[in-house]
Amino acid sequence: QPVIQLREIEKIYQTKTIETVALNRVNLTINKGEFVSIMGPSGCGKSTLLSIMGLLDEPSGGVIELDGRPVQAYSDRELAALRNQKIGFVFQSYHLINDLSVLDNVELPLLYRPGVGGKQRRERAYAALDKVGLSARTGHFPSQLSGGQRQRVAIARALAGRPEIILADEPTGNLDSVMGEEIMELLLNLNRQEGTTIVMVTHDEQQARRTQRLIRFFDGSQVS
Ligand code: ADP
Ligand code: ADP
């Protein structure tokens, strides 16, 4: 059952003097419950692909379908809700807010969510932090945590939104192998136990081999 389908997706970045084709007619289907990894050299379009899948960026051409329905068929309001509720993002550099506590960082994406009040927000944040093993660090600030712990906070923040899909852009890229392994285990468990669909960009062949499907990119196109 497809959750995200890309059909002939193109992305062209235009600056004054150069035109970069970041994605060249990409066709790709992500099915419900899959854990897919994406590999390829720097600059081949992996981050662009994730941003487009996550509706953070618009393609220059082609069609994106979510749950079998073209994105164009959704209203702006529906799309904003989908972006917020259906999809969780995890980045290489964590993107935490340094002067908010761990708990406040995790609650943040729920602040403007309709139907989730303060008490529920807090409960969900605690539950998410429990899942990533950070219940004892809720009052800490990001600067007081290791890289691996910071990434776990970022994953908890994504989980608090209860996303169906997690898009992770080199989630272990800034971590040593031990902490990277922890994060990988966490993602594998989420996928197995909760059925969360995951698309992960990685440079680590060993990690990629543990996922269900490996897609290789080169120069804006899928090569295998
Ligand atoms: P990857 O994630 O595989 O390293 P990216 O998706 O970041 O690749 O980039 C693909 C190509 O598009 C690269 O050539 C990059 O320089 C270019 N690119 C990415 N974002 C922009 C942008 N905002 N403006 C111009 N060029 C961009
Ligand atoms: P990551 O940590 O995911 O590898 P990057 O360093 O590839 O992130 O890119 C960070 C941001 O810079 C992205 O939003 C991307 O779109 C933008 N970017 C990447 N390459 C270029 C470029 N050549 N020109 C302008 N913006 C770019």
UniProtKB/TrEMBL annotation:
<dbReference type="GO" id="GO:0005886">
    <property type="term" value="C:plasma membrane"/>
</dbReference>
<dbReference type="InterPro" id="IPR015854">
    <property type="entry name" value="ABC_transpr_LolD-like"/>
</dbReference>
<keyword id="KW-0813">Transport</keyword>
<dbReference type="InterPro" id="IPR017911">
    <property type="entry name" value="MacB-like_ATP-bd"/>
</dbReference>
<dbReference type="GO" id="GO:0016887">
    <property type="term" value="F:ATP hydrolysis activity"/>
</dbReference>
<dbReference type="InterPro" id="IPR003593">
    <property type="entry name" value="AAA+_ATPase"/>
</dbReference>
<feature type="domain" description="ABC transporter">
    <location>
        <begin position="4"/>
        <end position="223"/>
    </location>
</feature>
<dbReference type="InterPro" id="IPR017871">
    <property type="entry name" value="ABC_transporter-like_CS"/>
</dbReference>
<dbReference type="GO" id="GO:0022857">
    <property type="term" value="F:transmembrane transporter activity"/>
</dbReference>
<comment type="similarity">
    <text>Belongs to the ABC transporter superfamily. Macrolide exporter (TC 3.A.1.122) family.</text>
</comment>
<dbReference type="GO" id="GO:0005524">
    <property type="term" value="F:ATP binding"/>
</dbReference>
<dbReference type="InterPro" id="IPR003439">
    <property type="entry name" value="ABC_transporter-like_ATP-bd"/>
</dbReference>
<keyword id="KW-0067">ATP-binding</keyword>
<protein>
    <submittedName>
        <fullName>ABC transporter ATP-binding protein</fullName>
    </submittedName>
</protein>
<dbReference type="GO" id="GO:0098796">
    <property type="term" value="C:membrane protein complex"/>
</dbReference>
<dbReference type="Pfam" id="PF00005">
    <property type="entry name" value="ABC_tran"/>
</dbReference>
<keyword id="KW-0547">Nucleotide-binding</keyword>
<dbReference type="InterPro" id="IPR027417">
    <property type="entry name" value="P-loop_NTPase"/>
</dbReference>
